[in-house]
Fold this sequence. Notes:
With 142 residues, chain A is α/β, with parallel strands linked by helices. Chain A has helices at 8-13, 15-33, 46-52, and strands at 40-44, 61-67, 79-84, 89-94, 107-114, 120-126. The longest helix of chain A is centred in the N-terminal third of the chain and has 19 residues, at 15-33.
Amino acid sequence: MTQSAPLPAPARRAWGPVIVVIGLLLILGWLVFSGVGNALTYYQTPTELAARGEAGVGQSVRLGGLVLPGSVSGPPTDLTFVLTDGTTEVTVHSTVAPTSSFREGAGAVVEGTLGEDGVFEATEVLTKHDEVYVAPSGFELP
Amino acid sequence: MAATIGHAAVVIGLAVSLFAAAASVLAGRSGDPLLATVGRRSVYIAWGLSLAACAAMVSALLGHDFSVLYVARNNATTTPPFYSFISLWAALEGSILFWTFLLTGWSSLLLYRYRRDHAALMPWATATLALVAAFFFAVMTWPSDPFVTVTPVTAEGNGPNALLQNHPFMGLHPPLLYVGYTGLALPFALTVAGLVTRRFDAAWLRVIRRWTLGPWIFLTAGITAGAWWSYEVLGWGGYWAWDPVENAALLPWLTATAFIHSAIVAERGRSLRTWTAILVVTTFVLTLLGTFLTRSGVIESVHSFTQSAIGAWFLGGVLIALVSGTALIVWRLPDLAGSGAPPPLVSRESAFLLNNLLFSGLAFAVLFGTLYPLVAEALGGDRVSVGAPWFDRVSAPFFAALLFLLGVGPALPWGEVSWPALRDRFVLPAIVGVAAIVGGVVLGVGGAASLLTLGLAGFSGAILVGEVARAVRGRARASGEGPLRATWGVATRNRRRYGGYLAHVGVLVAAVAVAVSATQAVDATAVLAPGESAHVADYTVTHRDLVREPLASDPRVFETRAELDVAGPQGGSVSPALRDYPNSVVPIATPSVLTSATEDLYLTLLAYDTASDTVTLRLFVNPLVVWIWIGGAIVVIGAAFAIWPGRRTDTVVADPVVADA
């Protein structure tokens, strides 16, 4: 009688950690998988963005293209310019000053969202860091 | 000449490594001490050969020998000697060469240290390390040969990556990270040896844990120094962007940290043995995966994978390590099986278990976020990236829970605990935690996340201080020593425990700094003509002059700098700049940072107009950032203190398996 009394205790105790572990795994899964869709940034060209139509509005996009010559206007902190891929043009507005590498006719990557009015509101004007830049003349690599 | 020597060293290195592996496997099977010695010494020779190859490359770089393609691509006649030297690890082929040198160096250190010990186990560790070395020598022999020569020899090279020669810190964090990364092959090799010989027991786990902590210290220092470099050099005002390159270093750090903790439980009894072995294998696989991700170009685009054979090689290496490690663990499952009975819910065992769940869960989440864009592009074709906000949101709960555990865990006793004992230990720290939150509110710290961090840090910090104070008071009373002597006595008597506590304190310091700097930073953008001023927080920044001139140290580099006068809590003259390198289309930012104990004033020159001398500046006031680096340094010091060889070794807990035998 007295020997059998302590037995139930460890058996009951065994479930506590198991429940805690399962609970934590569920929380982990929810944290990881929920909302990853919203956290994605799409790399797109102006043509690809335009092809999405209404679906592209409000989505976080990284847009790459050339700055259309003659399209840049406004001070660096209230800048408007047109980004083009040769086929489609998108008007971009940015309150974030771009770096010196930003110039007309050069490539630029902007991150932000397309507004209802069709103007792309940039939260970041990025410069692409070329890992290796090979001088155009006098040095030929195999 | 250098190319011939280097190439010969690499090819002989491959042959010697394969020979070392074969001799060591035979030694492991037969127990022949002569073969074991041959295998071990062959690894020393492989180290010598990789050293010779590194020396050949360094001499080619310093001598601007453009007949070597790597030198032509990464060096120029005007490159200063320091940057020529560190160009050894500036690009793919050189970094793999440097990597091989460090790997065989670590291997030689381990094998020399145990040349008279663990005779049954060491041949298997030698064989594993020799095979890993052979893999890297093979990579250098075929897909990524650092000594490819080029004809005709050009008079001038391309110069190092502009970003990498812009700051001497580039000489600091890559070697630290590589030393950490390569060192994590040691616990893998020791685990393989333990599993093959069926001696994955408490004594062996202590050996594995020590040789994990060494590399872990370098990895921790490397991650901290890398964040520092990113902050001081890149000019975006932050230090951590959840970039794949950063995640590649963080992933093995997370699983190695989990292992360091689970090994403490595993060496006390039979529980968690399988799990601990899995963590070691995972950590090693993650170091290879990290190299694959950062070096194959696969991060840029999945399609770049096919452009170079290096990606396929590393993917093959990852798969071989993963499959063989898993097979070995499955093969030895009967030996590793635990005792079955789970620990009481509130106990130190449970705290360790939860710690491991959190670290491996976090590692899984980070891995998921890092690989998601690759999988998405490979399957659907959409080019996507997972943004930093996702990583912040997912990781924050893990970090909060870990901050809580980091104080609670060490204060909980092993096994059952009574509620009055819990009350005694945790009521006062809980009050300190609440006081820290109130103090934060009074000081004007806003944001739920930073206040929660303050509270958790106060709570856990108070527990750790209380634990040390209790031990010191006991010793001082017993021995009559003064408080300082008693503290030193307590700490050196159990280095592992108190080194661990110090590392925990470092994490608390860094965590508070990260949370406060992330939520309390102020930033502004200003366009200033000469004589105009901008205001940010309590600072006034006045634009004095725009100067454009070549760098004195390298006249090919053209610097444009804004000379500014700063008035406020910190004052003086600073000059953030943009530097134009001949081999970079993009000018390289060179920010100015004024640092104090409470905040940094961080200034970046974004753009300038030479006609009007107008400058566009980004101004940040980042609170407490310096404490992130100090916290990292405390963690490193604590861990180093823990593994420093003491006069008296820690108490060895008898292993039931050994005791039975």
